[in-house]
Amino acid sequence: VDLDTAREELKEFIPHVKNISDTSIRKMAGRDLARFKQFKKQGMAVKFGRFTRKENDQIRKNVEEFLSISGIDSAEKLLFTSRYPEDKETINRLKAKHQFCEKISEGIPRPWRLIYYRARKMFDPNNYKGRYTKEEKEQLKKYQAMHGNDWKKISELMSRSNLSVAMKFSEIKSAINYGPWTKEEIQKLKHAVKEVMRKKLEMEDGSSPSSLEQSNRDLWVDREKLCQHLPWTEIETKVGSRYWRQCKQKWNSILVKKMSKGQTLHRWIKGVQNKITLIKRLYEMKVEDANEVNWEELGDAIGDVPTTYLQVQFYRLKVSFVPSWQKKTFSEIMDFLYQYKLPELEEKL
């Protein structure tokens, strides 16, 4: 399949395919396109976002079965072959012989690359080493000064995963405040988010800075969906005194509070009809796990509502009305809300 044809065919399954590099398109055409078409025949849509428990179990099953048929004696050797240079040639030969790419992704309607990365995260023993000691933190600072942000190199030196060393350095590289946010910090956070959102708008919409200056409302309200994929490490750098996860959590709380003050959204929260709509929409999805809910689509369907906002409202519904909700699965919670709370709400109309 030529590049243009592959991109066009993948567009059916991956809406943002135009932003994917030519190299990645070629790889996806070989590894994913046939799989995606097969999943479509089975009525299964290609998924992104967090992996569900069911998908994690399938990955474990796929890895265990591949180890069994290939004779490779550990998941670490299979997924981190470079750590075993003396066995590398043999392992790669066995992976090719037993079709590693196809086997590892069986039964999971996601791009192969995402499945592979998820498997590496799940089976990397360096992800389960516990807290960093003071000595390790000092080592990490020293290695970062020597190698910059080459987390792969640093992870090898420290026997920790790439993600682990990158995230830990993010926490310790400067004086981090763990107490209540000050007014100055909140202002820095808002300014940082505004800057990256403005930059994103300019890139995606071709808007000029002057046109964006004229309409802050467009930037903050009508473009709310742009808050879903912000560059948090960049925002962390701009704020200075907080690490990226704190910035993300604080911004989400600001967003929910800010949107709650809007008259239209305020009516949505309090309105019985909209609680009914939320319950019905979630119930109709027939998903087994909250991670399978496409909150972005749900927000658009209900009326351009931010995903964080929807998730907060769902949390309030289950906590307020579902007995022992902590012990119930997502589908059990939805069954209860649909069967018992929905009729009660409809009677109020």
Automatic annotation (TrEMBL):
Please name the GO terms that the record assigns under molecular function.
Answer: chromatin binding
So which residues are the signal peptide here? none
Q: Which GO terms describe its biological process?
A: termination of RNA polymerase I transcription
For the Myb-like domain, which residue ranges apply?
124-172, 173-255
Annotated coiled-coil segments of the chain:
none
Tell me which GO cellular component terms the UniProt record holds.
nucleolus
Q: What is this protein called?
A: Transcription termination factor 1
